[in-house]
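Key result, reporting period 2: structure in, sequence out.
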């Protein structure tokens, strides 16, 4: 199934470039505590993570739209380490918001991370291949189950590409009784390079696919809670700074 080519879907493509200039600032990604126990959600979805590690930014990525552990069993301590081996953390919590206005005038919002509420993008399905797919330079792969990929003939664009998908209407997401889904699919692709100057840069691309509503307007934002400091123990006492910057792209 090629999700992004189904004609009834309305697709919103938003590319976000995260430029990590760590000598002067930390640009961050993700937020909040996972409200449902992992063993409860495991019956509905496959939760997974991967770590970008070919460049100078060692970055955790999940299939929940977060760049921290979220509901996965990631055994590490640091979410975004720069430079490798320094134990310098740069991101505590980060995720995205998406909101839209339906043709009837209703306003719907879903988020992968936020303070004060449960996030609702939790993987895509319980299939074991619904994971964070790792593709290296020179590889061409079908991403998904054998015979049923959701991206055919994907070609790696960087030295290390991660591709995953999630939605806000699967059974795990609907465990939140206050959540009214947008019926939004999200395909997230991230890129990392091994050689300078791009080895200090991570690029994240999001494809938002509306599977039910023809939204009149759509708004997307990022939630960022940086935590900058030397992180060698659990807890948040390491955090010495919460610097984040946003550079709008002008067409």
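The corresponding designed sequence is given below.
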């Amino acid at each position: 199934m090629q999700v992004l080519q189904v004609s009834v879907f309305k697709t919103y493509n938003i590319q976000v470039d995260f430029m990590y200039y760590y000598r002067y600032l930390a640009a961050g990604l993700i937020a909040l505590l996972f409200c449902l126990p992992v063993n409860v959600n495991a019956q509905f979805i496959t939760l997974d993570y991967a770590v970008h590690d070919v460049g100078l930014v060692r970055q955790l990525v999940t299939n929940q739209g977060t760049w921290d552990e979220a509901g996965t069993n990631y055994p590490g301590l640091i979410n975004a380490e720069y430079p490798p081996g320094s134990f310098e953390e740069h991101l505590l919590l980060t995720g995205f918001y998406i909101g839209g206005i339906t043709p009837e005038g209703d306003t719907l919002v879903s988020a992968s991370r936020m303070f004060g509420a449960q996030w609702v993008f939790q993987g895509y399905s319980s299939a074991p291949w619904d994971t964070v797919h790792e593709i290296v330079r020179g590889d061409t792969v079908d991403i998904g189950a054998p015979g049923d990929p959701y991206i055919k003939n994907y070609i790696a664009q960087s030295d290390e590409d991660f591709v995953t998908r999630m939605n806000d209407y699967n059974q795990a997401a609907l465990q939140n009784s206050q959540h009214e889904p947008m019926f939004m699919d999200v395909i997230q692709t991230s890129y990392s390079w091994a050689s300078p100057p791009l080895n200090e840069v991570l690029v994240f691309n999001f494809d938002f696919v509306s599977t039910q509503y023809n939204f009149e307007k759509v708004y997307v934002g990022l939630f960022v809670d940086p935590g900058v400091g030397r992180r060698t123990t659990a807890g948040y006492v390491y955090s010495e700074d919460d610097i984040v910057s946003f550079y709008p792209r002008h067409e």
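The radius of gyration is 18 Å. The helical segments are 38-41. This case is discussed further under Risks and Mitigation.
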